[in-house]
Amino acid sequence: MLFFYYLFCLRREEHFVVMKLSAALLFCGNLLWCLDSAIFQVVPWWAGFLVVMIAGERLELTRIRRPPLWVRVSLRIALLIFVVGLALTLVDFRLGVRIGGAGLIAIALWLLRYDLVWQSVNLPGLPRFMARCLICGYFWLALGGVFWIWFARFFGAGPLYDAALHTVFIGFIFSMIFAHAPIILPTITGLALPFQNSFYLHAGLLHISLLLRIAGDLALLPGGQKSGGLLNALAILLFLINNLRAAVSVR
């Protein structure tokens, strides 16, 4: 939180406020965990940290288009709904999860409407790959919000809880990781990571396997859930292999 406050003091940009909010959600989640709260009570806060951080990062990129005030206000409202939902989980957990789910839907709709991905999806190579990953991730986030509302009374254990969690953590978060890895990893490691069409293999497998997993959850078929989960792990492994192959190909 202090880091983003420092950045905000240097440059008073709204996205730093959003990122500071995400850090505050992580702090609250970790505090609940340290106080021995049940893990299902902590998970929404950890999910909030990741979702809000990504929303702040995408908000930063929208500065290129100089969005009007009402566009920025609409994101503030979406974030407010989500944070209010998280706060309410401390008093009425099911109600809080439902309101938090509504906030996830609102954030996803904002991203689908105002993110820059629609300008990139028709470009060749890496921009198109990134845009497609991001768009799929936003749809998963919206579905996750629907599941948080629909399955709030099961938010604690079981296949419906699995569906509510993994639409966000696998569908949304890993779509963001897959999309940004070709840019972030070279920055961190100093290694070039040229785009390759094989990147679509791990991205496609992620979404297909998650669909299988969610179908198994909703149909109460443990085999579908387990197979989907195994293929989720395989998609992540394939992601690592493909990125390593791309890095090695330029050496």
Layout of SSEs?
Layout: H1 2-10, H2 14-34, H3 39-61, H4 69-88, H5 93-114, H6 117-120, H7 126-150, H8 159-189, H9 199-218, H10 222-248
Describe this structure in words.
With 251 residues, the protein is mainly α. It has one domain (2-248). 80% of the residues lie in helices and 0% in strands. The protein contains ten helices and no strands. It has helices at residues 2-10, 14-34, 39-61, 69-88, 93-114, 117-120, 126-150, 159-189, 199-218, 222-248. Helix 3 runs parallel beside helix 5 and helix 4 packs antiparallel against helix 5. The N and C termini lie far apart (39 Å). Residues 2-10 have low confidence and may be disordered.
Summarize the structure.
This protein has 251 residues and is an all-alpha fold. It contains 10 helices and no strands. The chain has one domain.
